[in-house]
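Review session, final week

We close the course with one last complete record, chosen because it touches almost every idea we covered. It is Bifunctional protein FolD, a protein from Roseobacter fucihabitans with 300 residues. Go through it on your own first, then we will talk.
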Amino acid sequence: MSAKIIDGKAFAATVRTQVAEHVSRLKQDHGITPGLAVVLVGEDPASQVYVRSKGKQTTEVGMKSVEHKLEVDTSEPDLLAVIDQLNNDPDIHGILVQLPLPKHLDEDLVINSIDPAKDVDGFHISNVGLLGTGQKSMVPCTPLGCLMMLRDYHGSLSGMDAVVIGRSNIVGKPMAQLLLGDSCTVTIAHSRTKDLADVVRRADIVVAAVGRPEMVPGDWIKPGATVIDVGINRLDAPERGEGKTRLVGDVDYDSCAAVAGAITPVPGGVGPMTIACLLANTVTACCRANGLAEPEGLTA
Ligand code: GUN
């Protein structure tokens, strides 16, 4: 058996098209342009790449994109002042503070200073609590993208056994909440889990989000299971030439694809869905802020 490849790149393109249609309607019918502000502190190269990509895709779907690039030694009060200004700006519907922040800044304090209604990352404790209690919230982008792909492939997830490997606040925990919300039986596994192989073998759905290259081998996968690989790990690839690298996920793709029913590739799986969901969350936040109906199919 060979798994169906879930094409996240193509799916993300359809999400962006839906977002663009909504943006266009908001402009035409209501004279509203959704606005997303991204705050970047310091010059982490990976963060700079993400932020540039977010800005480009935001304008491509017709939204307003604002970037605040702050010096690496920006003080906490100065950063909080920028967030306060964005919280009070009626043209800004989504605020994202790029993580990780420089060490001298308190990440929890900073994230929790964002207006929860504008927290398009879904990291504010209010949104975490709302998601955990099944109330309307902003949902973290990467788990939302995974959920969209799972729903698209399976239809209903009700009654399925799901194993999430990884317990981060950004992916593992919210992913588990979303799967529970769709009536899966959910296990969260992590570095201290006993008999991880046996736990994973029970799963109809495996979401791998640990940040360890190719750690899930194919013989852990139940035949026909759906494998969602959140990992993005860069490995040296001398066979491609000197200094070359390649991206791999948290699952060993070839051996898992030989057993799974469906699998997301790396790159081209979960990755492209994350920014698409950020755009979707911004439109959702804009609609809520203006008392308008939310876009269908773009929320949890
Ligand atoms: N850094 C890496 N991923 C993310 C993300 O999803 N949101 C934010 N704010 N920072 C990140």
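Two points worth writing down before the exam:
The radius of gyration is 19 Å.
The chain has a mean pLDDT of 97.
Good luck, everyone.
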